[in-house]
Amino acid sequence: MAKWGLVTLLFLLITCALSNEVExxxxxxxxxxxxxxxxxxxxxxxxxxxxxxxxxxxxxxxxLGIPDSNIILMLADxxxxxPRNKYPATVYNxxxxxxxxxxxxxxxxYRGYEVTVENFIRMLTGRVSPDxxxxxxxxxxxxxNVFVYMTGHGGDEFLKFQDAEEISAYDLAxxxxxxxxxxxxxxxxxxxxxxxxxTMYSKINSTNILATGSSRLDESSYSHHTDYDIxxxxxxxxxxxxxxxxxxxxxxxxxxxxxxxxxxxxxxxASHPGIRSDLFHRPLDKVKVTDFFGNVQNVELTKNRYPLxxxxxxxxxxxxxxxxxxxxxxxIVHKEHRHRYHxxxxxxxxxxxxxxxxxVLSTVAIGYIVLSTIM
Length: 375
What we know:
Layout: H1 2-27, E1 33-40, H2 48-63, E2 71-75, E3 110-111, H3 117-125, E4 144-151, E5 154-155, E6 158-161, E7 165-168, H4 169-181, E8 187-193, E9 209-213, E10 223-227, E11 232-236, H5 237-246, H6 257-262, H7 266-269, E12 274-276, H8 290-293, E13 308-312, E14 316-326, E15 329-339, E16 342-346, H9 355-374
Parallel strand pairs: 1-2, 1-4, 2-3, 4-8, 8-9
Antiparallel strand pairs: 5-6, 6-7, 9-12, 10-11, 13-16, 14-15
Helix pairs in contact: 1-9, 2-5
């Protein structure tokens, strides 16, 4: 009996070890950095709310730790400087005007007529011209979690850019496909607030992409409320209720995206939000909000030192210029000095066996010894 009791105990220990590792695998994102792409595609004063939507998300991701260097902000119109703005150089998302979204520290990367379908797709896929400044580049990699937020006027499988052109659901799906093939993301969370928004993610077929939209096919997306002093609506309902949840989240929060989605109420939002998770590999109740809206980075500690592989680069000539004065004329003498510089490539040591396997093998060995002793 004692033998079978030990066998049962050994089996339970192995099962527990494996289940913990499986749980950790499915709940861990594996990302090392975060990026946010925030796009307002609407021009004109009466689309004030779309600018406020985007700036509200901008404020949220910055508050949760994503720096401006990792945020691409695209605003098709500068309503803060519009002559009809009763409160110049400000943008508010609430009629009480407690918070100026524009503030003193807003970095707009694409402004006005720079906000085009071509520039948006080039930025996502990295196919920009060589002279494009860093602030206009999405410098993500295969360990990047990317949050993409878009707002404007749309319809069945399209979103308008400045009432001049459109991006289709096929264009968006193709851009994400290129990002996947070029290893420009680890996971993507795509959020869109527009009429018939859910149709915009219907053609996506790349892995590790989670999407949500404000309204289903043949359904409009409505504003939340109007500031009658300004004379226009100041925020959309879908974005408003997302922000209501996000305002209670900080960098250390354990709230998940499932918690966020559970707050979606069609009666309040006045439309039916949609969620597409079939391409996403993690359970939504294991995905922290900060995995996309924040910049909480994992620190990986290793017992072994990282070897530095010395790479000898080309020698670079350096001209040392000395000026020798001789009466009224000057003679410039160039003396060539050559030196070497070194760059180091960090190579991560791959362990032969993961810790989980070693732990299981150790448990099996100990159990075997105990059983052998008894028998």
